[in-house]
Amino acid sequence: MDRIIILDFGSQVTQVIGRRVRELNVYCEIHPFNKFPFKDDGTSIPEDIKGLILSGSPFSVRDKNSPKVNLNNFIGKIPILGICYGAQLIADTYGGMVEASQTREYGRAELFVSEKGEPIFKDVPQASIVWMSHGDTITKLPEGAKLIASTASVQNAAYKIADKNIYAFQYHPEVFHSEYGGTMLRNFVIGICCCKNDWTTESFIETTVLQLREKLGKDEVILGLSGGVDSSVAAVLLHRAIGQNLHCIFVDNGLLRKNEFEEVLEQYKGMGLNVRGVRAADRFMEALHGISDPEGKRKAIGKTFIDVFDSEAQKITNAKWLAQGTIYPDVIESSSVKGPSATIKSHHNVGGLPEKMNLKIVEPLRSLFKDEVRRTGIALGIKKELISRHPFPGPGLGIRVLGEVSKEKLNILKEADHIFISNLRSYMTELPPASNGLSYNTNNSANNTSDSKNLIPLYDAIWQAGTILLPVRSVGVMGDERTYEYTIALRAVVSNDGMTADWVHLPYDFLAKVSNEIINKVKGVNRVCYDISSKPPATIEWE
Ligand code: XMP
Q1: Ligand 1: does its nearest atom lie under 6 Å from the Cβ of 535?
Q2: Could you read off the pLDDT tens digit of each residue along the chain, which spans 543 residues?
Q3: How remote is the CA of residue 394 from the centroid of ligand 1, in Å?
Q4: Contacts of 370 (CB under 8 A, 6+ apart)
Q5: What phi-psi label fits residue 158: left (phi over 0), alpha (psi between -120 and 50 degrees) or beta?
Q6: With CB atoms 3.0 to 4.6 Å apart as the test, which of 60, 297, 320, 476 could cross-link to 526 if both were Cys?
Q7: Ligand 1 atom with the shortest distance to the CA of 542
């Protein structure tokens, strides 16, 4: 299979380049600029690597410590596309000049193609909108370069060095706002690099099933199901490969949504999976007793999960493998240029599991982005309701009851959450416009049967939603009585990957209905608030 390698210099949108390339049905990999997937002296570029894309970066090429690669090793050997920092790096290396812009250029700009018939601009109109985001600008092109496009304020917006097979864009073709960015990437990947576009969901399933059969043979495999998309898709894929030799374990930690354990367990059984449901809510409550610190709660939940899972897994005596639903963003994140992000919480709560169990690891979704996992799930026949579920944290409602968790508080939260989520599912809306560079979660809605007016459930237009029980009580009146009860916060965000997020402008009539229902039906709550903070600086979860 042909491959494109994307060298990551630390831009926030490098993953988006990867997704755009995959959308062209071309396989690609993202690697930190300093960790090449082959010898970085360029002497042994594998034949299946057809092109190199250099990403953007938060650095300036003028910084002493900015990330650099020795381009001479690749130049002329395979086609190269430099994006933003990548374009500046090439200019800086080959005799061009990069200087600080007078003003930081951020946002939409109109690009004028000056070279007619240029292959990288095939099917791109002479004027189109592109997205700029840079503090430096290329004031002098590198040697042998030819200017191929400009904007009103950026003369050297795109250039080409024909004899070196280099293309370079100052703007970001990968982001949604660059109208013909996808076309330009297609021209590079398929037109110039000559990649075959044979990376499809079907081909992925076919080859993965064969590889899994070969790798696992008749071995028994254990997999922990969470009710989420990744572990479910991994399970069905493995089940297709090895059938009943896959043993799934689904733990009820008591921190799942209302009725979730029973409903999801039924769905799993309906799919033919060999699954054991383990009810362990009491053990988790015990472990959480007296702990109010968020990280402390995560650790207690993670440790209890490992214990419960491990003792269940011991019963499968011949197991040799532990399967995990790791997906590509986890792989990239754990070897990223910046190192695992310090700004996020300890998300991999069950990180100690593989070491403890002493099993070999198999991760069938390691190369897939989230939207590809969803498509794979659909192609494997998993129900849409499961595939389009919002992300849900491992510690579940345990980190949405702020402070110490009690059974009483958990029950209040489960009821309120159920009302919020049910209403999100039943309220129909038009697909909202994207805001702030974030596209709405259209991968969910694409799988949806929208009616003729193009209405979709509000749930599908949102990346993630949930309720939070605040550890404060406030005064209210109900009938003639004064009440002193809890407050529920509602949270709904749009995001691409959870790293940044925008709060959703939920319709007032929707908010009014949810608030009324919660206050009227959930005993113990007399106030509902809506969280209107974006990430950063807030996080999606409150703990
Ligand atoms: P934050 O709150 O950091 O969340 O903005 C980003 C995404 O990660 C999820 N999240 C977790 N997932 N274990 C998980 O499996 C955790 O401890 C955890 N904390 C946050 C969160 O729901 C959101 O999707």
Answers
A1: yes
A2: 899 999 999 988 898 899 999 999 999 999 999 887 777 676 778 999 999 999 999 999 999 999 999 888 888 899 999 999 999 999 999 999 999 987 677 889 999 999 889 999 999 999 999 999 888 999 999 999 999 999 998 999 999 999 999 999 999 999 988 999 999 999 999 999 999 999 999 999 999 999 999 999 999 999 999 999 999 999 999 999 999 999 999 999 999 999 999 999 999 999 999 999 999 999 999 999 999 999 999 999 999 999 999 999 999 999 999 999 999 888 887 766 665 443 344 455 555 676 777 899 999 999 999 889 999 999 999 999 899 999 999 999 999 999 999 999 999 999 999 999 999 999 999 865 444 333 444 434 334 444 446 789 999 999 999 999 999 999 999 888 999 999 999 999 998 778 789 999 999 999 999 999 999 999 999 999 999 999 989 999 999
A3: 8
A4: 229, 327, 329, 443, 497
A5: beta
A6: 476
A7: 2
In which residue are the tokens 């997020």 written? 501
Q: Give the integer Cα–Cα distance in Å for 393 and 256.
A: 10
The total of other beta-carbon atoms located within 10 Å of residue 106's CB is 11
For residue 335, report the distance from its CA to the centre of ligand 1, in Å. Answer: 19
Cβ-in-10-Å burial (0-12, 13-18, 19+) of 473 comes to middle
Q: pTM for this structure?
A: 0.84
Name the pairing type of β-strands 49-54 and 3-8: parallel
- Longest Cα–Cα distance in the chain: 84
Q: Using alpha carbons, list the distances in angstroms from residue 336 to 53, 70, 303, 329.
A: 16, 19, 27, 10
Q: DSSP string covering 478-513, please? A: ETTEEEEEEEEEEEEEE-SSSSSBEE----HHHHHH
* Three-state DSSP class for residue 29: strand
- Whether residue 313 contacts residue 363, with contact meaning beta carbons closer than 8 Å, is answered with no
70 Cβ contact partners less than 8 Å away, ≥ 6 residues apart: 40
Q: How far apart are CA 130 and CA 535, in angstroms?
A: 25
Angle at 233 between CA 231 and CA 236, to 5 degrees: 110
Rounded to whole angstroms, the Cα distance separating 364 from 353 reads 18
Query: Is 172 noted as a catalytic residue in this protein?
Result: yes
Concerning whether 174 is annotated as a catalytic residue, the answer is yes
Is residue 248 part of the annotated active site? The answer reads no
Measured CA to CA, the distance from residue 178 to residue 124 in angstroms comes to 11
Q: Give residue 343's identity as a one-letter amino acid code.
A: T
* Ligand 1 geometric centre to CA of 123 (Å): 41
Whether residue 400 has its Cβ less than 6 Å from ligand 1: no
**Three-class SS state of 288:** helix
* CB 258 near ligand 1, within 6 Å: no
Torsion from C-alpha of 472, 474, 478, 483, nearest 10 degrees: 80
